[in-house]
Amino acid sequence: MIILKSKSEIKLMEEAGKIVAGAHEAVRKAIAPGITTEELDRIAEDYIQSRGATPAFKGYMGYPASICASINEQVVHGIPGPVALKEGDIVSVDIGAFFNGYCGDAAKTHPVGKVSPDALRLIETAKEAFFSGLEFAREGYRLSDISHAIQVYVEGRGYSVVKVLVGHGIGQAMHEEPQIPNYGPPGRGPRLREGMTLAIEPMINAGAHEVATLHDGWTVVTRDGSLSAHYEHTIVITQGQPLILTQEG
Ligand code: MF3
Ligand code: CO
What we know:
This protein is an alpha+beta fold. The chain is built from four helices and 15 strands. The protein has helices at 7-30, 37-50, 117-134, 143-156, and strands spanning 54-55, 67-71, 74-76, 90-99, 102-111, 160-161, 167-169, 176-180, 197-200, 203-205, 211-213, 220-222, 228-230, 233-236, 243-244. The chain binds 2-amino-4-trifluoromethylsulfanyl-butyric acid and cobalt (II) ion.
C-alpha cells in the first residue's frame, strides 16, 4: 500500500528534507583531497544533531554510520572510514535524517579536486537522469514512466543503470512502498497521485550494470571496476510540478 501524505505531513517532510539538504551542503564544502570519509560522516552527523534531527542510516539493519560514502567504483553503501579522498576521485554521498517522525533521503556524487572529463560526464548524467525521471513524477503518469525515462536517458549517454537497487516510497519509514526501479517499460505500476512521497535515485555505471557486495556486507561495487555515480532526492507528487524536499539552498 502506498501511503499518501496530507498537506500537514508534507510540511513536516519539508523540514526533514531541509535538514538533509543542509547536511549535504556542509559535506560538499568539506570535500577536498586529504579529507577522510569518516570526517565527512562526523560533519554530517554533527549537522543533523545540531538541528535536533536523527541520522536515518545509523543502526538501520546494523549500518554503522550516518552517511554512505562510496568512492569511484563503489556504487552505494560505502562505509565511512580512515580512507582519505584523493584528487581525481569521485565520491557518492548519501544522507538520511528523521525529524518530527518523518524521513528525508538524498544522495549526490561529487568530484574530488580536478577529475577526468569522463568522470564529470558520468556525474552529470546521474543528475540529469534524475531530472529526466522527475518530468514524469506527476498525476496522469504511472510509476514506471519515471523508471523508463531514467533508463532511456542513461543508456542514451552510453552508460548502464544498476538493476538490483531501487528507489522507494518514503515517509514515517525510510523505505515505504512502492519500489522504484531505474529501468523498465513505460505505462506500468501504480498511477501517481498527489501526496505520494518518493525517493527517486538513479545509480549508474560507466561500464556494465552488474554489481557485487564486498565482504563488509555493505559496500556495493561495480563488477567490472568501472566508475559509478548516484543522485537522489525526496520528492512529493502534487497537482502540478513535483516538489523536491531535499533541494539545497
Ligand atoms: N539512500 C539509501 C536508501 O535509500 C540509504 C540506505 S543506507 C543504509 O536505501 F545504510 F541505511 F542502509
Ligand atoms: Co534512498
